[in-house]
Amino acid sequence: MKVTSTELQNNFGKYLMLAAREEIIITRNGMEIAKLSGLGGPFHDRSELLGTVMERAVDRTYGGVKATYEEFLELTKDTEERYEYIDGEIYALASPKTAHQAALTEIFVRFYDCLKGSKCRPFVAPYDITLRRNMENINVVQPDIMVICDLEEKLGDDDYYKGVPALAVEILLESTRAKDMIKKLDLYMSCGVKEYWIVNPGNKEVTIYLSGDGEISSNMTFRKNEIARSYIFEGLSVELDRVFR
What is the pTM of this model? Predict the structure, then answer.
């Protein structure tokens, strides 16, 4: 990357973070006069990692920020900010808008009513769920809604759930659309989530995916004026007229 000396002076913090990942060539009057480069490899401190994650969160044309699981744990320690860690990348979670929250409320209330009295319980974000593709690939996500059926067996001494939800729901935001529809779909199906709901307030649709042997075995799409029905929970259904007003 090439930048002018004036641009570097005006945005030194930004280019200092970038230099940890790539070489910065500094120019003056069109001539190369200096080089700025970092040590490469892992981030050197929490503030550097946080700055890079937030920079990517603002510029939604980029994906997450590559980091180790240990760096993710350090970043999220003692903070109220929300992050997810998927396939070695950290994503900052944006504040949801009204349509998102309205859909979440209607779906959660319906889930609660339908599952009341059973061993399965619905939960809402923020609530960390750790999913492992294998021993090396550790992921941490916060589904908007999740249904957990083995809480007593999988609740750790630290009061964190250690299992895999039976069902997960993600309500799309513009900033999370690609992640929810591609990365999380693959992650949930491969890690044992049996059913995944993608709720799209933009086109007023709900698509439900059923997992089988780590892959998508079936899917259905429901639209406004229809009733979305679960594959795995008999009687669990949601009137989409109430979700999409």
Answer: 0.77
